[in-house]
């Protein structure tokens, strides 16, 4: 059987396999260093064939791809990679470092209370919200796309399912979006927080994942003095200050 | 296969023949690989550079395989968004960025052409494509080779293909460019399955080794 599967390497390299054969060979590949090594070369050869077909792609393709990319969450790296992410499991344990650190008890300075712009986008515009109209959703998607495609857009793992945070100084906005987001506790919603360098926290929008775990939310704000973003679970409607432990956090 | 050992040895040598293939080069000088890594971290500006470098190949390959321009555009879009989605899984030690991207594109295109074909129920029952290919193979093998050559423009590619036997070229034409599985290849050519698998593999090894020599 092993000989048989090994002989499939050429067919596998040019995708001349059925889904079953592909799965079998994938499994074989994980265990067979010879095949893995040989496959690198065969794939490069296949790529050379493919690259020879290069044409000028239709001009409209680029915008469509970038638009879709702006709305498409990425898979996280395979385990073992850089993990700035705070997995949920780590922060719920009673003795976890995160929980002990807790929230700094600092009052919100009135002077900086206005970090969150009061534009139509500030607050809880969100895709997953069940009562939001499709018009709202389209507007949100468009705004999210503009943020994520801004030249200075910068993305970071959020650690809530496959969620990531995309921020753009230029657009003065932060987007949180992702898939595979776990449901919050009954009666709770997620809420995004802006953590300032002085430790103060400013309430951001609340959001709920779709039944399939995807969500998208956007917040307009000034990035000046921002140290981190955090997510907590809060009672429906959100809170002025966090009332529960952080379930995900990203430092800048 | 007898060239197993040789294949491994030359795998290392050949790596340097491919842009970004050399491990040293990759660490220091595969800009596309670096861009793809940054893409995997959510850097959309990096993705745009990957797009600019490889969208032409992705689209061209899709067009070559699915033929229909609208379909090709759809396939290219799906493939490129998929690159964005899975970029964090890119491992430079497992191949170049170009190879990573075109593997995704090729698989998408082949999957699409197969589902189109199975919807139309053409491939196995009526099989105009393989019937034509088989007829050409039987009666005018030179024409098949010529037609293929006309489309395989790049000089480097032509050199690689020239090193193949007509049967090997045909095997790649039917699999890589038309989406046949190894079993469909065997059936359409009336050859044993083991022969079909070996022919594809031999063809790819020959291409790999020829391109290694051209550098």
Summarize the SSE layout with pairings.
The complex is a heterodimer of chains A (252) and B (215).
Chain A: H1 2-6, H2 9-13, H3 19-31, H4 33-51, H5 59-70, H6 88-92, H7 97-101, H8 134-148, E1 154-157, E2 164-168, E3 173-178, E4 188-196, E5 201-207, E6 215-220, E7 226-235, E8 246-251
Chain B: H1 4-15, H2 23-29, H3 31-40, H4 44-66, H5 69-86, H6 97-120, H7 122-126, H8 128-139, H9 141-151, H10 155-162, H11 166-175, H12 182-189, H13 193-213
Helix pairs in contact in B: 1-13, 3-4, 4-5, 4-6, 5-6, 8-9, 9-11, 10-13, 11-13, 12-13
Report on the architecture of this protein.
Chain A is of the alpha+beta class. Chain A has helices spanning 2-6, 9-13, 19-31, 33-51, 59-70, 88-92, 97-101, 134-148; strands spanning 154-157, 164-168, 173-178, 188-196, 201-207, 215-220, 226-235, 246-251. In chain A, the strands form two sheets. In chain A, strands 1-2-3-6 form a four-stranded antiparallel β-sheet, covered by helices on one side. A four-stranded antiparallel β-sheet of chain A has the order 5-4-7-8. In chain A, a hairpin with a 4-residue loop joins strand 4 and strand 5. In chain A, helix 5 (59-70) crosses helix 8. Chain A is elongated, with a radius of gyration of 23 Å. The model of chain A is unreliable at 80-132 (pLDDT under 50). Chain B has 215 residues and is mostly helical. Chain B is built from 13 helices and no strands. In chain B, helix 4 runs antiparallel to helix 5, helix 9 packs across helix 11 and helix 12 crosses helix 13 (193-213). Chain B is globular. The two termini of chain B are 26 Å apart. Classes of the chains: A alpha+beta (252), B mainly alpha (215).
């Amino acid at each position: 059987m092993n000989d048989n599967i090994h002989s499939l390497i050429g067919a596998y390299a040019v995708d001349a396999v059925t889904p079953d054969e592909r799965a079998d060979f994938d499994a074989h590949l994980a265990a067979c260093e010879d095949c893995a090594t040989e496959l690198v070369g065969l794939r490069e050869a296949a790529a050379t064939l493919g690259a020879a077909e290069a044409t000028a792609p239709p001009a409209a393709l680029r915008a469509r791809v970038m638009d879709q990319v702006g709305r498409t969450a990425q898979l996280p790296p395979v385990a073992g990679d850089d993990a700035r992410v705070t997995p949920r499991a780590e922060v719920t344990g009673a003795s976890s470092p995160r929980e002990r650190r807790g929230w700094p008890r600092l009052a919100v300075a009135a002077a900086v209370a206005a970090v969150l712009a009061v534009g139509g986008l500030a607050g809880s515009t969100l895709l997953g919200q069940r009562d939001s109209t499709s018009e709202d959703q389209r507007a949100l998607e468009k705004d999210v796309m503009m943020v994520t495609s801004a030249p200075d857009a910068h993305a970071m793992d959020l650690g809530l399912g496959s969620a990531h945070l995309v921020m753009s100084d230029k657009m003065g906005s932060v987007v949180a979006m992702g898939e595979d987001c776990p449901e919050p506790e009954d009666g709770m919603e997620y809420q995004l927080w802006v953590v300032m360098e002085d430790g103060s926290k400013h309430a951001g929008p609340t959001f709920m994942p779709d039944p399939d775990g995807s969500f998208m939310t956007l917040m307009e704000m000034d990035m000046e003095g921002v140290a981190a973003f955090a997510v907590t679970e809060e009672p429906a409607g959100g809170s002025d200050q966090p009332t529960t432990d952080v379930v995900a956090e990203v430092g800048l | 296969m007898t060239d197993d050992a040789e294949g491994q040895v030359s795998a290392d040598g050949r790596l340097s023949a491919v842009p970004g293939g050399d491990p040293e080069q990759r660490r220091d000088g595969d800009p596309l690989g670096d861009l793809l890594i940054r893409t995997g971290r959510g850097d959309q500006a990096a993705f745009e550079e990957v797009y600019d470098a490889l969208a032409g190949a992705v689209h061209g390959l899709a067009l070559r395989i699915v033929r229909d321009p609208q379909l090709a555009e759809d396939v290219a879009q799906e493939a490129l968004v998929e690159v964005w989605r899975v970029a964090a899984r890119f491992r430079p030690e497992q191949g170049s960025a170009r190879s990573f991207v075109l593997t995704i594109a090729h698989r998408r295109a082949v999957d699409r052409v197969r589902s189109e074909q199975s919807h139309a129920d053409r491939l196995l029952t009526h099989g105009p494509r393989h019937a034509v290919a088989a007829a050409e193979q039987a009666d005018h093998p030179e024409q098949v080779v010529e037609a293929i050559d006309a489309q395989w423009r790049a000089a480097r590619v032509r050199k690689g293909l020239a090193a193949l036997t007509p049967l090997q070229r045909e095997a790649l034409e039917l699999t890589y460019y038309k989406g046949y599985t190894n079993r469909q290849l065997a059936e359409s050519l009336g050859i044993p399955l083991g022969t079909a698998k070996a022919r594809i593999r031999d063809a790819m090894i020959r291409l790999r080794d020829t391109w290694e020599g051209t550098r």
